[in-house]
Specification:
Blueprint: H1 2-20, E1 25-33, H2 40-50, E2 53-61, H3 63-71, E3 77-80, E4 89-104, E5 123-127, H4 132-143, E6 149-154, H5 157-165, E7 171-174, H6 179-183, E8 187-189, E9 197-206, H7 213-233
Parallel strand pairs: 1-2, 1-3, 5-6
Antiparallel strand pairs: 3-9, 4-7, 4-8, 4-9
Helix pairs in contact: 2-7
């Protein structure tokens, strides 16, 4: 489209002007699965503060759409906890993802740790098909042959979280997305053998991807700073570790 071409040319002129002034400039495009929104800002903030000429396009959506945008070469990077199969990718491990069985505040769980048979009595709320959270949850359920009772499925972790708070059931959710609700007592972790379920948040990109200077600089930044970012912002994970 002519209008799109003109806009792209204007952006290019703007980036060249900024670059002429000795600043890094360009467009950085990242797609993120919904729960990743609790993580990716911490890996972006310092970089964007250092390089004010960078324009960020951040798409937060479900796993299937994230993979589609990556496959179509529409983004520089994607953030996922489940790496897609049958794609030629590079990856950078960012940090651990931990999922716990959760309840609202109304029911009492007094035992130090419960056997997995507890699932016989807990109606579970699922994420929709294609969700990374659901994939990790179902893989764990299948591996351990858990006697689960599926009550409903919802399309976002936020919807699942609110349903659990309202007393509509129980669920397995990433710790990263329930910190505030744990702190204010709206949710509680049910201590169960074998939990937390652990996976890894990965920054992924196409193996033959031709990086812009902005994308290449961001990757260098994350590789150099990720340990400091995790230490400064996610050390609180250890507080909830099942002893």
């Amino acid at each position: 489209m002519a209008a799109e071409r003109i806009l792209n040319e204007l952006h290019a002129i703007n980036y060249k002007t900024i670059a002429y002034k000795g600043q890094l400039a360009g467009n950085l495009k990242i797609s993120v699965v919904s729960t990743g929104i609790y993580i990716i800002p911490y890996f972006l903030a310092g970089f964007l503060n250092q390089h004010e000429g960078i324009e960020l396009q951040l798409d937060v959506t479900n796993k299937l759409q994230v993979i589609e945008s990556l496959e179509n070469n529409e983004v520089d990077f994607s953030l996922v906890s489940v790496i897609p199969e049958n794609m030629k990718l590079n990856k950078l491990e960012l940090m651990q993802n931990q999922l716990y069985l959760i309840s609202n505040k109304d029911k009492k769980f007094n035992e130090k740790i419960y056997d997995k048979k507890i699932f016989e009595t807990l109606p579970l709320i699922y994420r929709e098909e294609g969700s990374g959270t659901r994939h990790v949850m179902e893989k764990f359920i299948l591996k351990n042959n858990l006697p689960v009772k599926k009550k409903m499925e919802l399309t976002t972790n936020e919807a699942v979280k609110q349903a659990v708070i309202a007393g509509m059931g129980f669920s397995i959710l990433p710790l990263i997305g329930i910190k505030n609700e744990l702190n204010n007592g709206e949710l509680q972790i049910i201590p169960v053998k074998g939990f937390p379920i652990k996976s890894v948040w990965n920054l992924i990109w196409l193996k033959d991807k031709g990086f812009s200077m902005a994308a290449n600089s961001f990757l260098d930044y994350v590789q150099a700073e990720k340990e400091n970012i995790i230490k400064e912002n996610f050390a609180w994970f250890e507080y909830y570790a099942v002893k």
